[in-house]
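Reading a protein record of the kind used here takes only a little practice. The record below shows the convention in full.

——
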Amino acid sequence: MAQQQMGNQPLIVLSEDSQRTSGKDAQSMNITAGKAVAESVRTTLGPKGMDKMLVDSTGSVVVTNDGVTILSEMDIDHPAANMIVEVAQTQEDEVGDGTTSAVVVSGELLKRAEELLDQDIHATTLAQGYRQAAEKATEALEDIAIDVDEDDTEVLEQIASTAMTGKGAENARDLLSALVVQAVQTVADDDGIDTDNIKVEKVIGGSIENSELVEGVIVDKERVSDNMPYFAEDANVAIVDGALEVKETEIDAEVNVTDPDQLQEFMEQEEAQLEEMATQLADVGADVVFVDGGIDDMAQHYLAQEGIIAVRRVKSSDQSQLARATGATPVTTVDDLTEDDLGFAGSVAQKDIAGDQRIFVEDVDDAKAVTLILRGGTEHVIDEVDRAIEDSLGVVRTTVEDGKVVAGGGAPETELSLALRDHADSVGGREQLAIEAFADALEVVPRTLAENAGLDPIDSLVELRSAHDGGDTAAGLDAYTGDTIDMDAEGVYEPLRVKTQAIESATEAAVMLLRIDDVIAAGELKGGSPDDDDDDEMPAGGPGGPGGMGGGMGGMGGGMGGMM
């Protein structure tokens, strides 16, 4: 409870349930939270990184090496820790890869800042130095970036392969990286690359090597009637964003029937409506119809008579992909359908894949939507391969859009570290110390790569620095042999944007946390609502107490420790 003395009377500012931590205690608490989050994913970094198993309250299991998946699945309550989790989510949204690196760098920036705060360097000075360093680092990255042509399939495959390294898809990464690059190049158009046009269909059964790319769309549905054809060649495709059912009145209506003949007429009229729909589809030349809603049993019968393949309750995402792949224009009702609205596919067929029936729409003229069929022995294996594919699609898309890459294996971080130390000498004032701390923090990436590979991190760093001092900007760490090698010659590349985004996000999060010197927690922040009884409120004793934010932090750290 915050209070000020006025004469002999204390002035109460905060409510009695509020908890407040100020000054160095608040900074220390936030820094500890940030470091704990970074530490939780640090062992997953690199080709020899380990996986995490996450089990929720219902017993569902996720086994993954993907930083953003680990952090989003973890139950993190601490507000400062959540700010570091946001770094990973931003990195995933912007680029698709480098989430673990971004979080680890953010945690290391906080760790180095803590040492300088203990030497009485002000947080705003640190923040200013960190921002200068991030700006300089981004410039230095631009200088060492390598230009890549969007048609350079070999380099694009190497980039996709680098993103998969250390994840479940590693064994078949040559095949998968080729499929990823082919998929991205197929859906690219003048408006850029929308990876939503690459559908990933997960099929349990077989091995990862059985994965394939279909230039077209696979719909996880069956035809509605067994009397319909299995296959249509050179098919005209119609997409109806509605239902093929008897039209209902918009108001509640009652029909009184006094004679059986009237009832018969009523039913015949309904049948005639449904038959008319099937006839209209046949008249415009449709061979296949994909419907958003349901299809009446009688309509199914008439469609089968016309030899039309019909699929019902197709997801809107599948509909948009079908429209993009075949060139069809979705219509609301069959009455609106014209010949110009039809799309074309060389082949529409119902096929069996791992015991499930699916509709394959293939041989389209100019496939701007494709489907990647991922195979795997178990659900957990295939989920992890899916996450690796998602990262690879992101980095290949980014590379095609930007046309710039940097070497991997800790090479850019080592180069930036040296460049920043040189730059720090030209900076006056205490900001110089912050820039040097930033340079030290970036080396956490090669150091962690070495540690996770079971190598001596000091020897590895010394070798890397020596190689970069000699002018070899692409020298990186080979996690398999422990040698310092030319990553450019080895074909280990990452998109430039992965590194610039990681540095910018990590710096912004670290600076934001460092500038906080007061944490005020209301009673409800613990999870209770204002209507709960007093038992659910945050216990007294301050944020460092057993029930406050500090206690929650300890619990979170303990939970993370148990995970690792």
In short: The CA atoms of residues 180 and 393 lie 6 Å apart.
